[in-house]
Write a structure and sequence with these properties.
By secondary structure, the protein is of the alpha/beta class. It contains 12 helices and 12 strands. The protein folds into 2 domains: 149 residues, Nucleotidyltransferase, domain 5 (2-Layer Sandwich), CATH 3.30.420; 187 residues, Nucleotidyltransferase, domain 5 (2-Layer Sandwich), CATH 3.30.420.40. The protein has a 7-stranded mixed β-sheet with strand order 3-2-1-4-6-5-12. A hairpin with a 2-residue loop joins strand 2 and strand 3. The relative contact order is 0.14.
Length: 356
């Protein structure tokens, strides 16, 4: 059996997660931490490219990797794309470098880092199921204001992976299932998955539940007034919504573990905010159940906050009327998803897609 050597890069807000696979077997993984004071010296995320690459290249040398058949990076908020594995090409690189993306996000670095490392090994770079995977039905794009179309931006990589894991466990295919997938991380994505297609999902930057760092849906007229109050610049408002909201804004921490400790010590404000997040998550799950017309085979819960049993149990209690089929996949399965996407292409089980 031929061996394929695959290196995976998943850049996040304060870290770059890397891993080395032989075929679909994980050999080694590491989280490279990037101290906040170092990242703050870069005005844009894209400016961190060389800084992060140096740390990754050092790890590659320390791991004594001599050969690679593929380097895979996390895909960012590009233009709407179909689900699948894409070869990194000049068009993709130029779109990222020239800012033709939907948001400034660390995941934009994935393709750039992968391409730079792939070049040193004379191999191909790929991305898999980027943030901008778009399988919306037409009705999901309607916002209520013609000038503002709802966009499909989500934690598609992890969400698609847990769907596949669930289908494999059930000995069936994702095209035969209706699922609600709940990604609970720094951002929260809750998607309606009909026959393997994510036909609706909250944009984690624009709406849905508030999360540890993001505001989620806001009172629109009050938001407009705040934007025009003169108190904040455009950049400051965007930061308040996407990086300084949620738990962080109310309680001064973005760690669920800290919030649970505050609640257990009798902090009433923390208890209210904690319960409010649970309610908002449950409401969004209910909304996605409506999209699926109540035909829900299971609810899959994943992401970092899925590691907290009391938190998950409280969510389940509020949505158990939809289904009693709950399956938990704590943490993020993104490194595996990236490696498996490239591996399927390398062995000919999946046709690589072209970014145009």
């Amino acid at each position: 059996m031929q061996k394929y050597y695959i290196f995976v890069i998943n850049p996040g807000g304060g870290s770059s997660k890397i891993a080395y696979f032989v075929n679909n077997e994980l050999i080694k993984r590491e989280t490279l931490r990037h101290p906040p004071h170092e990242l703050l010296s870069y005005s844009r995320t894209i400016d961190q490219l060389s800084y992060r690459y140096r740390a990754i290249k050092k790890a590659v040398e320390e791991w004594n990797i001599k050969e690679l058949n593929a380097v895979v990076g996390r895909g960012g908020p590009f233009k709407p794309l179909k689900s699948g594995t894409y070869r990194v090409n000049d068009i993709m690189i130029n779109d990222i470098l020239k800012g033709r993306v939907l948001a400034d996000h660390p995941s934009n670095l994935g393709a750039l880092l992968a391409q730079r490392l792939a070049n040193t090994f004379n191999t191909n770079a790929y991305i898999v199921d980027p943030v901008s995977v778009d399988e919306f039905i037409p009705e999901s794009r309607i916002s209520g204001m013609p000038e503002l179309e709802r966009k499909s931006l989500s934690h598609a990589l992890n969400m698609k992976m847990v769907m596949k894991l669930y289908a494999e466990k059930q000995k069936t295919d994702i095209t035969k299932l209706n699922l609600i997938v709940v990604h609970l991380g720094t951002g929260i994505s809750i998607g309606a998955m009909r026959k393997g297609q994510q036909i609706d999902v909250n944009n984690a930057n624009d709406g849905g539940p508030f999360s540890p760092q993001r505001t989620g849906s806001l009172p629109v007229t009050q938001l407009v007034k705040l934007c025009f109050s003169g108190r904040f610049s455009k950049e400051e408002m965007l930061n308040k919504i996407t990086r300084q909201g949620g738990f962080l804004a109310y309680l001064g921490t973005d760690m669920l573990s800290d919030v649970e400790k505050m609640v257990n010590k009798g902090d009433k404000q923390a208890e209210i905010v904690y319960n409010a997040m649970i309610i908002q998550i449950a409401k969004e799950i209910g909304a996605m159940a409506a999209v699926l017309e109540g035909d829900v085979d299971a609810i899959l819960i994943t992401g970092g906050m899925a590691h907290f049993p009391d938190f998950v149990a409280n969510i389940k209690k509020k949505v158990s009327f939809i289904t009693n089929q709950f399956f938990e996949y704590p943490g993020e399965h993104e490194l595996e998803a990236l490696a498996f996407g490239a591996y399927r292409v390398l062995i000919g089980k999946e046709e690589v897609k072209t970014y145009e």
